[in-house]
Design a protein that fits this description.
Largest sheet of chain A: 5 strands, mixed, barrel
Oligomer: heterodimer
Shape of chain A: globular
Strand order of the largest sheet of chain B: 1-2-3-4-5-6-7-8-9
Distance between the termini of chain A: 29 Å
Number of strands of chain B: 9
Structural class of chain A: alpha+beta
Number of helices of chain B: 4
Number of domains of chain A: 1
Order of helices and strands of chain B: HHEHEEEEEEEEH
Helix content of chain A: 25-40%
Chain lengths: 130, 270
């Protein structure tokens, strides 16, 4: 049990480090506000495991029933695939909670800091500047 | 006669004992780690084949992930001006240069070419194949191929500039020495920080399989119009025999969106 926890912890740490490296080349700070992360809960409409960065489109509904369409950007698909993500790891209708750096230009886009997929066999996505 | 035999045997043992392979093996044994020696081809050359993934991507002894060296290369006034423009408004010195000026990115979508292909990637991964007179490299980025000719040929004269240039090489002991010329210096950055280059760049690579799982490349960049003297860098890769090459491109997402909208009219197929 202890070794399992250690393995999970170690795996998570490796994933965080590796994920940070995947994004390290990108000029994220210019496009996204890393100092003001937001957390949103919504429903996936499309997941694209494509180059150069995977994209998750999702809809957020507020308490008044208003729907906002958001896009969350993640790492390069090759790196995500090697860490256990597949092109169907998120499906339309999946409920997700995403924490990320919002776009500086005010558009409804973010760079993913953390996303817990509904399928627990898929690694938690932890990217960016948290 | 007997003395000569004993002397010969001692010589052989001494040479073997101090051979690089044995020294690595002894060093590993003494430190309690296991380091497998680099394999060789049937003709006795170091075998570079395999899928290699870059390590040492953090700032430090092996350089920033987006550059070849921790030290600022000695730029000419022209290069310094071009570099300042590429960095203007970029807050983090470790971040890549301005994306709106980056020839790789939308809407320019140029191939990264050499030498930038070695550093600007999602994973900086390539596979090497090798024969007696060729070394083949296939990079994950843009699925780009490269041939290094080892058959003694000369560089091309008057050929068009190419993003991958033209590479000739030779074995220098256990190190593969490669010289590349004919690079496209107009539509490329040398690295992802935004250092410029010209078509006059001559790149040297010294490629060495340090042990079974480690590939090192020492670089030298000689580009007199952009840099006041040749400068060097180093990168290290580790063997990943369990991986296969995937793909990394820079403009797929933006191009996909426009193609889907303008050409396919939203039709994603049956």
């Amino acid at each position: 049990m202890k070794s399992n926890r250690l393995a999970v912890l170690t795996g998570g740490l490796v994933f965080v480090l590796a994920s940070s490296l995947m994004f390290a080349h990108h000029n994220i700070g210019a496009q996204y506000d890393r100092n003001s992360p937001v957390t949103l809960t919504g429903v996936v409409t499309e997941f694209l495991l494509i180059n150069p960065h995977a994209r998750i489109d999702f809809e957020v509904t507020d308490e008044h029933g208003n729907v906002e369409k958001w896009s969350a950007w993640s790492g390069p698909p090759a790196g995500m695939f090697r860490r256990g993500w597949k092109k169907d790891s998120l499906k339309p209708g999946d409920k997700i909670t995403v924490t990320g750096a919002p776009a500086r230009n005010g558009s409804k886009q973010m760079s993913v800091n953390r996303l817990v997929p509904p399928d627990r066999s898929v690694p938690v996505l932890t990217l960016g500047a948290d | 006669m007997r003395n000569r035999c004993v002397g010969l045997a001692l010589t052989v043992v001494t040479i073997f004992w101090f051979s690089p392979a044995m020294m690595i093996a002894r060093s590993a044994q003494e430190s309690g780690t296991t380091v497998k020696v680099a394999p060789r081809t049937s003709d006795g050359k170091p075998d570079l084949t395999g899928l290699w993934v870059r390590t040492g991507n953090t700032p430090g002894s092996l350089g920033n992930a987006d550059s070849f060296s921790d030290e600022e290369p000695p730029m000419t006034p022209w290069a310094a001006q071009r570099y300042r423009a590429a960095r203007e408004g970029v807050p983090d010195p470790d971040d890549q240069g301005r994306e709106d000026l980056d020839p790789l990115l939308y809407p320019y979508c140029m191939p990264p070419g050499l030498p930038r292909l070695y550093i600007r990637t999602g994973t900086s991964t390539f596979e090497i194949g090798q024969t007696r007179d060729r070394v083949y490299m296939v990079f994950e980025v843009h699925s780009t191929g490269r041939i290094i000719y080892l058959d003694g040929r000369e560089h091309l004269d008057g050929a068009p500039d190419m993003f991958m240039g033209y590479s000739v090489g030779r074995w220098d002991g256990d190190t593969l020495f490669v010289e590349t010329k004919g690079l496209n210096g107009l539509l490329t950055w040398l690295d992802s920080l935004g250092h410029p280059m010209t078509s006059g760049l001559r790149m040297e690579e010294r490629i060495r399989r340090a042990n079974h799982d480690t590939l090192e490349i020492n670089f030298l960049f000689d580009d007199p119009k952009a840099y006041t003297r040749p400068w060097t860098g180093k990168k290290v890769w580790e063997l990943r025999p369990d991986w296969g090459l995937l793909e990394y491109t820079h403009c797929e997402e933006r191009g996909r969106r426009e193609y889907l909208e303008k050409v396919l009219k939203g039709d994603k197929g049956p």
